[in-house]
Amino acid sequence: VQLQAFGGGLVQAGESLTLSCAASASTQKWYGVGWFRQADGESRKLVSATSWNGGRTYYDDSVKGRFTISRNNDKATVVLQMNSLKPEDTAVYYCAATQSLYSEYATEYNSWGQGTQVTVSS
C-alpha cells in the first residue's frame, strides 16, 4: 500500500493542525497505521497508532491528551488531530502502515509515506 501524508505547516504554540494520511489501496483497511515523527538530530519515534478498525489506539506520553488519531476506512484515510501544539512537537511527521492489524513497534511498519513538516513557534 502506498501512503501520502499531508497537512503540515507552521503554527504558533497552542494552535492546532490536522495531518492526514491517504492510502492508495482499498486493502489498507486491514493494516495498522502509525504516525511517527523525527526531529532534527533525533531518531524517528512512534507518536500514535491505530489498529485496522480503529478499535485500539496508542499515544506516546508526550502527546497524550493533545493528539487524537482516527481513521475512515471507506475513505482510506487516517487523521492525526494535533491540539495545543508545543515547540517540542516540531518535527517531520510520517505515516506508515503495518500488515499487522496493530503495532507499537516501528520495525513492523513497512510502508511509509513521505514526511510532512510541522513547525511550532514559541
Task: Describe the 3D structure.
It is a single chain. This protein is mainly β and 122 residues long. Helices cover 0% and strands 48% of the residues. The chain has no helices and eleven strands. Strands 2, 4, 5, 6, 9, 10 and 11 form a seven-stranded mixed β-sheet that branches. The mean pLDDT is 94.
Key structural traits:
122 residues, four-stranded antiparallel β-sheet, 11 strands, mainly beta, single chain, 0% helix, globular, seven-stranded mixed β-sheet
Give the topology.
Layout (H helix, E strand, L loop, with lengths): L2 E4 L2 E4 L4 E7 L8 E7 L6 E6 L6 E3 L7 E6 L4 E6 L8 E8 L12 E2 L3 E6 L1
Parallel strand pairs: 2-11
Antiparallel strand pairs: 1-3, 3-8, 4-5, 4-9, 5-6, 7-8, 9-10, 9-11
Explain briefly what this protein structure is.
This protein is mainly β. The protein is built from no helices and 11 strands.
Strand composition percent: over 45%
Give me the Rg, rounded: 13 Å
Mean pLDDT: 94
Tell me about the largest β-sheet.
7 strands, mixed
Low-confidence stretches: none
What is the H/E order?
EEEEEEEEEEE
Provide the structure class. mainly beta
Name the shape in a single word.
globular
Oligomeric status: single chain
SS elements, strand count: 11
Number of helices: 0
Q: Kindly, what is the distance between the CA atoms of the first and last residues, rounded to a whole number of angstroms? A: 37 Å
Helical percentage: under 10%
